[in-house]
Amino acid sequence: QNATSPIMEELIAFHDHTLMIIFLISSLVLYIISMMLTTKLTHTSTMNAQEIEMIWTILPAIILIMIALPSLRILYMTDEFNKPYLTLKAIGHQWYWSYEYSDYVDLAFDSYIMPTYFLEPGEFRLLEVDNRTTLPMEADIRMLISSQDVLHSWAVPSLGVKADAIPGRLNQAMLASMRPGLF
């Protein structure tokens, strides 16, 4: 699915940025290797030059900084918690999830995976559930994620959210959807 949240759009842009750097480095290395294999000429003054050693020491450091700074910015964005509009608690069980809207009294439900024989054409196996979680769009939502029995992973890839549900531990994630849809 396409990105639905600003965080996921930033993650996609960072992926493209990093992939372009890797592509340029790989192309340069492939070019140098092919030139070394096809050319018999050697330049003796560059074989022991300190200038080239400085370049291949400083250039990778600059490239790592070009990757690290956007990465740290996105990491900060994913952990930034403003005043949430809504808090939703997801509790993982072995075969289903329980959801509780913490801001409202007694608003909780269980969400089970639909069996394959109940699926209608166009529905995805192992993704359809009997009770879907409904969340408002263009609002900051705090997710509290835990588990009751075993390790689980709560994820919505188009929102750029993935958190582990661990028994006895309460993990927190922030999400915001900028368009309506089924995710």
> What's the SSE pattern?
HHHEEEEEEE
User: Largest sheet, if any?
Assistant: 5 strands, mixed
Mean pLDDT: 89
Instruction: Specify the helix fraction band.
Output: 25-40%
CATH topology of the largest domain: Immunoglobulin-like
Q: Going across the major beta sheet, what is the strand order?
A: 3-2-1-4-7
Name the CATH superfamily assignment of the largest domain: Cupredoxins -  blue copper proteins
Q: What's the end-to-end separation, in Å?
A: 8 Å
Question: Which architecture of the largest domain would the CATH scheme give at its second level?
Answer: Sandwich
Query: In percent, how much strand structure appears in the residues?
Result: 15-25%
Shape: elongated
Uncertain regions: pLDDT < 50 for 5+ in a row?
none
Number of helices: 3
Q: What is the CATH class of the largest domain?
A: Mainly Beta
Total E-strand runs = 7
Q: Class by helix and strand content?
A: alpha+beta
What's the gyration radius in Å? 24 Å
Number of domain units: 2
Domain Cytochrome oxidase subunit II transmembrane region profile: 1-82
Domain Cytochrome oxidase subunit II copper A binding: 83-183
Subcellular location: Mitochondrion inner membrane
GO molecular function, one term: cytochrome-c oxidase activity
Question: Topology, pairings included?
Answer:
Elements: H1 6-38, H2 44-47, H3 50-79, E1 86-92, E2 96-101, E3 108-112, E4 141-147, E5 152-156, E6 161-165, E7 171-175
Helix pairs in contact: 1-3
Explain this structure to me?
It is found in: Mitochondrion inner membrane. One of its GO terms (biological process) is ATP synthesis coupled electron transport. InterPro entries: CcO_II, CcO_II-like_C, Cupredoxin, Cyt_c_oxidase_su2_TM_dom, Cyt_c_oxidase_su2_TM_sf. Its main location: mitochondrion. The protein is of the alpha+beta class and 183 residues long. It has two domains: 74 residues, Helix Hairpins; 90 residues, Cupredoxins -  blue copper proteins (Immunoglobulin-like, Sandwich). The chain has three helices and seven strands; from the N terminus they run H-H-H-E-E-E-E-E-E-E. The strands form two sheets. The chain has a five-stranded mixed sheet with strand order 3-2-1-4-7, with no helix packed on it. A two-stranded antiparallel ribbon has the order 5-6. Helix 1 runs antiparallel to helix 3.
